[in-house]
Amino acid sequence: MPMTNDILADFVMPPAVPAPAPTPEVLLIEALYDGDLPATDTLELDFNARTKSRLRTRLASGVETGLFLPRGTILRDGQKLRARDGRVVVVRAAAEDLLEARCATPTELARAAFHLGNRHVAVQVGRDAGGDWLRLQADHVLEGMLVGLGALVSSLRAPFEPEAGAYAPGHQHPGDGSGARIHLMAGQ
Length: 188
Description:
It contains four helices and ten strands. The protein folds into two domains: 27-93, Urease metallochaperone UreE, N-terminal domain (HSP40/DNAj peptide-binding domain, Sandwich); 95-159, UreE, C-terminal domain (Alpha-Beta Plaits). By secondary structure, it is an alpha+beta fold. The longest helix is centred in the middle third of the chain and has 13 residues, at 106-118. 16% of the residues lie in helices and 32% in strands. The strands form two sheets. It has a six-stranded mixed beta sheet with strand order 2-6-5-1-4-3. Strands 8-9-7-10 form a four-stranded antiparallel beta sheet.
């Protein structure tokens, strides 16, 4: 039997499979920046995200970004970062759910701050026209404790910039540089 092209007549070619769309490149940010170049984009993060040294996120412009910062880095509102491609990005503290504690006396406020610090809670300390306040991330257990200590506690949504801590990098006291030191009383 002679060969013909009839065999191919019944062969149906599968539909062409489109090539996958190229994956957009991730902008790598590996360094803090304290130079004079202006920021060209913004990275808005809540406090928990600003404590991570490895994070995949997006800039305000929508650019996918990977943070690879030195371990222990805590990003602060207004801090600049330098991307691998030279871009400068400014960090903004995102609004988040917080508690604000106010007390009738400085002693009560100090007591509330002591109990929060004893539990290693990140606390922002501030003052406005209404007086001194402590802010912390919303937590119903801590809210109950503060109310029990006599604080007037309210909920709000705001950027959170807690104290860096006495032993955070850049926090120094006069001395011989031998490491952590107890805070010296003012005037001595």
